């Protein structure tokens, strides 16, 4: 009986222990101007050129800020001022058939040029906004959320 | 009494939340031509349905999730610049990509591909790149798992080569796409030399 209880205790601990595994890298920041930052695990750090973007990161710019990002599938994304975009999902593993790119823009302006995920799996790219969802087929596009 | 107060507070919070959701956030979507001039397509979907935009510089707007996105209309360059000028100016540009080819069945580079190495190193330096992908690909001749392993082995060969020339190992991300990200679409078991390659992407 006792080992069973121990086992359950261990399982409980494993399931509820804080997950420290880092989210996978999705891309890299190439350029910033003005105020630009990355929000990760509830802490905010200034965004600088060369910094890696991870899945679940929020990209943010201030009133005069801009930021340019190149993703691992060669999608490019640039943010205008006063913008917030969260990278919800980024899967680029063609060998396993795992392809998806979901981001969410809650305010501001952004320019996207889709990359290989969209090329290999049209329909796997989605941009969510508060009022509407955008799906794409191989494209460059702009979004403004007022 | 206190319970009533807390309840009222909750109701007030709920109402203000609904209010915020309710008056969010007029949204504009603009389709631009790709850099090569081709024009793709975007589909904008609300609770009411989907609007397709398939002409260059045409925009659709959404003012409520309960309404269909507006009929696409052409947006002139001035208006695009006014709204999106700063976002467009922050374009990070396209990464530099290099395709390296191997002598059949080996992880020996062809002579022409060996000659590309200085260009790759120059691109890493000039871009101050902190993110370099080295990704192995094969054609569809032979078993898929063997091809996957060969493509991975070749990618690691290239990483070692770059590191031996002074590139920081931490900056290089190695992956293998096997048969599943071909340059040229080909049927299974059809030899396609252009697909037997390692792509180096310098971001």
3D architecture notes:
The complex is a heterodimer of chains A (146) and B (203). Chain A has 146 residues and is mainly beta. Chain A has helices at 2-16, 116-120, and strands at residues 25-33, 36-40, 43-46, 52-54, 58-61, 66-71, 76-79, 84-93, 98-113, 125-128, 133-137, 140-145. Chain B contains five helices and nine strands. In chain B, the strands form three sheets. A four-stranded mixed beta sheet of chain B has the order 6-9-7-8. The longest helix of chain B has 21 residues, at 2-22. The interface between A and B is large, with 55 and 56 residues.
Principal-axis shape of chain B equals elongated
Write the H/E string of chain B, N to C: HEEEEEHEHHEHEE
Largest sheet of chain B: 4 strands, mixed
Strand order of the largest sheet of chain B: 6-9-7-8
Task: Assess the beta-strand content of chain B as a share of residues.
Answer: 15-25%
Mean pLDDT of chain A: 90
The ordered string of helix (H) and strand (E) elements of chain A is: HEEEEEEEEEHEEE
In percent terms, what proportion of residues of chain A is strand? over 45%
Low-confidence runs of at least 5 consecutive residues of chain B:
none
Average the pLDDT over all residues of chain B and give the rounded result: 88
Residue share in helices of chain A?
A: 10-25%
From the N-terminal CA to the C-terminal CA of chain A, the straight-line distance is 61 Å
Rg calc of chain B: 26 Å
Q: If you compute it from the alpha carbons, what radius of gyration of chain A comes out, rounded to the nearest whole angstrom?
A: 18 Å
Helical run tally of chain A: 2
Total number of β-strand segments of chain A?
12
* Number of DSSP strand runs of chain B: 9
Would you tell me the structural class of the helices and strands of chain B? alpha+beta
User: Strand count, sense and closure of the main sheet of chain A?
Assistant: 12 strands, mixed
Uncertain runs of chain A are: none
């Amino acid at each position: 009986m006792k080992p069973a209880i121990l086992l359950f205790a261990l399982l409980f601990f494993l399931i509820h222990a804080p997950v420290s595994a880092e989210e996978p890298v999705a891309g890299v920041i190439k350029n910033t101007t003005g105020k630009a930052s990355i929000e990760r695990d509830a802490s905010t750090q200034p965004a600088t050129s060369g910094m890696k973007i991870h899945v679940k990161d929020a990209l943010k710019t201030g009133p005069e800020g801009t930021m340019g990002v190149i993703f691992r599938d060669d999608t490019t994304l640039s943010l205008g001022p006063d913008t917030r975009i969260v990278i919800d999902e980024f899967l680029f593993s063609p060998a396993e058939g795992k392809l998806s790119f979901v981001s969410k823009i809650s305010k501001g302006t952004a320019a996207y040029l889709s990359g290989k995920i969209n090329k290999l799996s049209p329909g796997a790219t989605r941009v969510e906004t508060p009022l509407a969802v955008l799906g794409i087929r191989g494209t460059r596009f702009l979004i403004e959320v007022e | 009494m206190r319970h009533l107060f807390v309840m009222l507070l909750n109701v007030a919070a709920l109402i203000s939340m609904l209010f915020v959701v309710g008056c969010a956030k007029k949204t504009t979507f603009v389709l631009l031509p790709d850099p090569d001039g081709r024009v793709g397509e975007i589909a904008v979907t609300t609770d009411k349905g989907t609007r397709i935009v398939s002409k260059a510089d045409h925009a659709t707007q959404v003012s409520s999730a309960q309404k269909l996105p507006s009929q696409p209309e052409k947006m002139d360059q001035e208006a695009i610049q006014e709204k999106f000028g700063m976002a467009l100016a922050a374009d990070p540009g396209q990464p530099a990509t290099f395709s390296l080819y191997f002598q059949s069945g080996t992880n020996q580079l062809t002579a022409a591909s060996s000659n590309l190495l200085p260009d790759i190193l120059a691109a890493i330096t000039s871009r101050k790149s902190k993110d370099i992908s080295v990704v192995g690909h094969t054609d569809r001749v032979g078993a898929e798992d063997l091809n996957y392993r060969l493509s991975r082995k070749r990618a690691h060969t290239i990483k070692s080569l770059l590191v031996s020339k002074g590139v920081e190992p931490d900056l290089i991300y190695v992956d293998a796409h096997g048969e599943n990200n071909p340059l040229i679409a080909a049927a299974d078991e059809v030899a396609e030399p252009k697909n037997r390659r390692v792509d180096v992407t310098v971001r």
